[in-house]
Write a structure and sequence with these properties.
The protein is an all-alpha fold. It folds into three domains: 108 residues, Orthogonal Bundle (Multidrug-efflux Transporter Regulator, Chain: A, Domain 2), CATH 1.10.1660.10; 49 residues, no CATH class; 60 residues, no CATH class. It has a two-stranded antiparallel sheet with strand order 1-2. Helix 6 packs across helix 8 and helix 9 packs antiparallel against helix 10. It is globular.
Length: 232
């Protein structure tokens, strides 16, 4: 019954998009997105596109927003798919869940990420050109003609840290730590990365995000533990 209803929607709605059309719309924002990745997300029950009578997948506007949200959560926050799926399941049930760390998705997570010029980035972060330059020199922000929301969040944090006497140069070790974590992830992925098929590449990308998310949990726990000792 549900399958025939989905087929009816797929055949009767001209606004539905094929996999190729979805890729054309989302690839500029998510260059690593592939048909295999889309099918992988469907297998993991993150999105449920309608099907035509011939079995072709058709994606609605809501499906597109859902995909953009999932991909943004993976790319920008390294959240594991099971965490994202749990959040969406709660949302579908009419509840108001929170993501780890109390992070709630804002409008930018369901739409194309903004791009900011250097002057716009400095102005919105409440920073100055010297602080941005120091952040780039310390490899905390990647130099670019246009900056994304991630760079804005980092620069805002650096503004607050500067008020406590913490400068970008004090955080140079963060880049080295990130590179060490990347080495751990690459070693863990080596068995899968050796395979050259599209399915394995999609699986390797997902495993990388899963591992990064788990490392973030460990790091946050260590910081909280250290703060507890400081309080006592």
């Amino acid at each position: 019954m549900a399958g025939s209803a989905a087929q009816s929607r797929a055949s009767g709605s001209p606004s539905l998009l094929s996999i190729g059309q979805v890729l054309a719309k989302l690839s500029p924002e998510f260059p690593d997105l592939t048909p295999s990745k889309l099918r992988f997300l469907e297998e993991r029950q993150l999105v449920s596109p309608a099907r035509t009578e011939s079995g072709y997948r058709k994606f609605s506007t809501a499906d597109m927003e859902r995909l953009r949200f999932v991909l943004s959560m993976q790319r920008d926050h390294y959240l594991p798919l099971k965490v994202i799926r749990g959040y969406l399941t709660e949302l579908d049930a009419g509840r108001s869940p929170e993501l780890p760390g109390g992070m709630l998705p804002g409008p930018s997570m369901l739409s194309t990420e903004r791009k900011l010029s250097r002057d716009e980035l400095i102005r919105e972060a409440g920073a100055n050109s010297m602080l941005l330059g120091d952040a780039i020199s310390a490899s905390l922000i990647v130099p670019a003609d246009l900056f994304g929301e991630d760079a804005l969040a980092v620069l805002k944090s650096l503004v607050e840290l500067q008020r406590s006497g913490i400068e970008p140069r004090h955080l140079r070790g963060f880049r080295a730590s990130a590179e060490r974590e990347l080495g751990l992830i690459e070693n863990a992925l080596m068995p899968v990365a050796r395979r050259k098929d599209a399915s394995s590449r999609a699986r390797a990308a997902e495993m990388a995000r899963e591992i990064a998310g788990q490392l973030e949990i460990v790091r946050s726990s260590l910081i909280r533990s250290a703060l507890t000792r400081l309080d006592s």
